[in-house]
Amino acid sequence: MDKDYDDIPGTYVFDTKRCKEGFHLNKFCKSLDQAENREQFRANPDTYLDQYPMTAEQRKMINDRDWLGMLQVGGNIYYTFKLAIFDGLTMQHVGGMMSDMTVDEFKAMMLGGGRKLEGNQSKKQNQGGS
Is the CA virtual torsion 52, 22, 90, 101 positive or negative? Predict the structure, then answer.
């Protein structure tokens, strides 16, 4: 683990490394701010994505709409959410998908105070390390 925050389970901090890794992924997502780009992407997703030299894994995450996967390969939640909006999804939909929950389960969890801390504080602790 390179950084202290790498020990927090389920956390993908958008640091310098992820910023560089996800530059083209995030640039694609940001492009969806413009109606003309949304129409081009809707008409031919593969051709539109060809403009952005992403890795095969990043393209797969986009095509699969793997929201958590996009964060893992350098996506920034604020940019990747532009793709979710393109798909007509809310933050609650995406949060639920990233948490393996339905939208209603996710909303209930958040209204109930959020995710419980037990088992979510440290990867080392979860593995029995010190």
Answer: positive
Rounded Cα–Cα distance for residues 48 and 103 (Å): 30
The CATH number of residue 49's host domain is 1.10.700.10
Give pLDDT tens digits for 51-107.
999 999 999 999 999 999 999 999 999 999 999 999 999 999 998 998 888 999 988
Cβ burial, residue 78 (10 Å; 0-12/13-18/19+):
exposed
Q: How far apart are CA 112 and CA 56, in angstroms?
A: 39
The boundaries of the domain holding residue 62 are: 14-89
Q: What share of the chain is helix, strand, coil (3-state, %, to 5)?
A: 60, 0, 40
